[in-house]
């Protein structure tokens, strides 16, 4: 899509209110978007490397930067600190999402396996530790699956995990493996949920997407690049599946593509609730 190439594309998210597809280039410290039906690339620069992007309930974006979570108005290029990271995170955050109550889920960024953790954040209650054993947080998602409030967190160094989840208290129950990648090529990266509760996962260094359900691996789709980093459903009917990637030797490495033939719909992205 479009004539651009990204150095390190990440954090792909569809804003159904504005009909925009947002994503970042971590290497260039830029947030980009495409208006639906247009290939014109819009860009705003951030003060440091952006990783996670989360739409907010007032039409702005929550973005994970070097020293904390910021609220970004992409049209006005205005960026203000909402909260620094907790000292216990011991670094900076990576991928992020909102839960169904408007709280934030994020966690430590590690580019290689190392100690890390996953966290919950509410502007009214601050930061709470969810899991002290997540090396590199990727693809977090919150949903009701099989009638149970569930939080999914991917660890690039391990698997996609799921927990019974309480959004109101920022607590989780015993974790289990939700998406076992040991039998497929690649490592857990960004993810998105479809309307049927299937988790579509971009497997970095694996060259494909896989879909997990509560019963296990359900589907795999080969991609024209080795390093996909994130996926999301978009379009007015949430029936178009987009994938973003990093630079590499393949012709479409660093591209944003639409994957045809999926025949599924996504869900509206949960939004972070700005304190008022």
- How large is the share of residues in beta strands? over 45%
Distance between the termini: 37 Å
Share of residues in helices = under 10%
Biggest β-sheet description: 5 strands, antiparallel
C-alpha Rg (nearest Å): 17 Å
How many domains, in number, for the residues? 1
Task: Describe, in plain words, how this protein is organized in 3D.
The chain has one domain: TolB, C-terminal domain (Neuraminidase, 6 Propeller), CATH 2.120.10. 0% of the residues lie in helices and 50% in strands. The protein is mostly beta strands and 276 residues long. The chain is globular, with a radius of gyration of 17 Å. Strands 13, 14, 15, 16 and 17 form a five-stranded antiparallel β-sheet that branches. Strands 1-2-3-4 form a four-stranded antiparallel β-sheet, with no helix packed on it.
Topology:
Elements: E1 9-15, E2 20-25, E3 30-35, E4 42-45, E5 53-55, E6 61-64, E7 68-73, E8 78-84, E9 93-98, E10 104-108, E11 118-122, E12 126-131, E13 137-145, E14 148-155, E15 160-166, E16 171-172, E17 176-179, E18 187-193, E19 199-204, E20 208-213, E21 216-222, E22 228-234, E23 240-245, E24 256-259
Antiparallel strand pairs: 1-2, 2-3, 3-4, 5-6, 6-7, 7-8, 9-10, 10-11, 11-12, 13-14, 14-15, 15-16, 15-17, 18-19, 19-20, 20-21, 22-23, 23-24
């Amino acid at each position: 899509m479009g004539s651009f190439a990204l150095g390190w594309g990440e954090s792909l998210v569809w804003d159904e209110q504005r009909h925009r597809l947002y994503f970042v280039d971590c290497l260039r410290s830029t947030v980009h978007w495409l208006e639906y039906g247009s290939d014109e690339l819009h860009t705003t620069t951030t003060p440091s490397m952006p990783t996670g992007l989360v739409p907010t309930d007032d039409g702005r974006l929550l973005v994970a930067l070097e020293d904390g979570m910021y609220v970004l108005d992409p049209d006005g290029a205005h960026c203000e600190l909402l909260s620094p990271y907790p000292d216990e995170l011991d670094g900076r955050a990576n991928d992020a999402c909102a839960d169904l109550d408007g709280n934030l889920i994020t966690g430590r960024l590690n580019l290689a396996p190392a100690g890390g953790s996953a966290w919950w954040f509410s502007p009214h209650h601050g930061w709470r530790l969810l899991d002290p054993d997540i090396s590199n947080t990727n693809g977090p998602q919150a949903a009701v699956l099989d009638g149970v409030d569930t939080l999914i967190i991917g660890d690039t160094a391990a698997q996609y995990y799921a927990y019974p989840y309480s959004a109101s208290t920022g607590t989780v129950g015993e974790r289990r493996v939700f998406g076992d990648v040991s039998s497929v090529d690649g490592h857990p990266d960004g993810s998105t949920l479809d309307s049927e509760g299937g988790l579509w996962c971009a497997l970095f260094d694996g060259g494909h997407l896989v879909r997990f359900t509560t019963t296990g691996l359900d589907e795999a789709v080969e991609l024209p690049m080795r390093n996909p980093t994130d996926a999301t459903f978009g379009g007015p009917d949430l029936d178009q599946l987009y994938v973003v990637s990093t630079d590499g030797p393949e012709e479409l490495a660093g591209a944003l593509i639409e994957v045809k033939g999926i025949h599924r719909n996504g869900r509206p992205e949960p939004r972070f609730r700005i304190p008022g």
